[in-house]
């Protein structure tokens, strides 16, 4: 996989900042495609750039931030060369000093998932030699595409224990900026710089675990991830394996949803959770038997009407 390395914005230098005052550089009418009720729709908006931004533009596998500027909703934030282009619901006056405010819950979630991906990628490579080819940060769960045909259950369990040990160790995460021509970059694990690189190159280091170039926002310490749960694997394309995971606040949310479903099943089956699987299998077997008996009776009545008996 390859993280996109871009011009370093305020949001990348100060990942935990929620507000920032800056100046409007340009603002013009535009159309932008957004998701409305699960469907893509082009809407009228205002394409706006600032001297700097606290809002992360989409890149490196990480979705863009949301938030507001002087109370005006920000619909999208995209990278265009060395600029972060913001799409706003209403216009702003060029030259005005404004206050940007991010949706912190969304930002922090993305930081947790992105740092978790770096950690899982590094440890999977170290332990088993599984290289990461790509990754996807989803709205509820994310996955890493690993260069292996399959991952045994035992390896997944050991990998999960290893990454969570790094979290329990409160492993620091450092971000350092280098000039694109700095010879030190040749010593750092990378998959190549993009052709449209602008400005310094950010290098994210998980102490004693991994060092890699990345444009995304990250936690300052792995303790901020709280925990990582490796959920399941799925066969990918070209003999690859998709490893699904949740990290940080998503772990509690995922666990909470599981508890809700378990409680509902307990009420429906009138049994304790440990007995759910047996009862469902029994009910399925009984239902199949009833359907078979019903089909046989219908067949008998049909034959009788036709004078077959």
From TrEMBL:
Keywords: Cytoplasm, Metal-binding, Protein biosynthesis, Zinc. The keyword Metal-binding applies. One of its GO terms (molecular function) is metal ion binding. Its cofactor is Zn(2+). Gene3D superfamilies: 2.40.30.130, Threonyl-trna Synthetase, Chain A, domain 2. It is found in: Cytoplasm. InterPro entries: Ala-tRNA-synth_IIc_core, Alanyl-tRNA_Editing_Enzymes, Thr/Ala-tRNA-synth_IIc_edit, Transl_B-barrel_sf, tRNA_SAD. The keyword tRNA processing does not apply. Residues 1-257 form the Alanyl-transfer RNA synthetases family profile domain. Its main location: cytoplasm. It holds the Pfam family tRNA_SAD. Belongs to the class-II aminoacyl-tRNA synthetase family. Alax-L subfamily. PANTHER family: ALANYL-TRNA EDITING PROTEIN, ALANYL-TRNA EDITING PROTEIN AARSD1. This is Alanyl-transfer RNA synthetases family profile domain-containing protein. It comes from Cherax quadricarinatus.
């Amino acid at each position: 996989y390859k993280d996109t390395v871009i011009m370093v914005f305020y949001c990348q230098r100060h990942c935990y900042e929620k507000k920032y005052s800056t100046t409007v550089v340009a603002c013009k009418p535009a159309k932008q495609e957004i998701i409305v009720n699960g469907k893509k729709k082009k809407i009228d908006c205002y394409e706006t750039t600032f001297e700097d931004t606290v809002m992360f533009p989409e890149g490196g596998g990480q979705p863009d931030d949301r938030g507001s500027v002087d109370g005006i909703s920000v619909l999208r934030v995209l990278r265009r060369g060395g600029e972060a282009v913001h799409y706003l619901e209403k216009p702003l006056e060029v030259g005005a000093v404004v206050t940007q405010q991010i949706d912190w819950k969304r930002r922090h979630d993305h930081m947790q998932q992105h740092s978790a991906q770096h950690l899982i990628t590094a440890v999977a490579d170290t332990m088993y030699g599984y290289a990461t080819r790509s990754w996807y940060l989803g709205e509820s769960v994310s996955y890493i595409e690993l260069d292996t045909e399959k991952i045994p259950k035992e390896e997944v369990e050991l990998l999960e224990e290893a990454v969570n040990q790094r979290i329990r160790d409160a492993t620091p995460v450092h971000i350092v900026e280098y000039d694109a021509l700095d010879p030190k970059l040749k010593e750092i694990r990378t998959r190549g710089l993009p052709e449209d690189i602008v400005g310094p190159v950010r290098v994210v280091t998980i102490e004693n675990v991994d060092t890699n170039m990345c444009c995304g926002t990250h936690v300052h310490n792995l303790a901020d991830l709280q925990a990582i749960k490796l959920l399941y694997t799925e066969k990918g394309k070209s003999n690859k394996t998709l490893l699904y995971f949740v990290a940080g606040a998503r772990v509690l949310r995922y666990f909470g949803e599981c508890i809700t479903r378990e409680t509902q099943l307990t009420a429906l089956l009138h049994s304790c959770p440990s007995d759910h699987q047996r009862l469902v299998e029994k009910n399925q077997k009984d239902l199949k038997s009833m359907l078979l008996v019903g089909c046989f009776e219908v067949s008998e009545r049909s034959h009788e009407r036709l004078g077959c008996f």
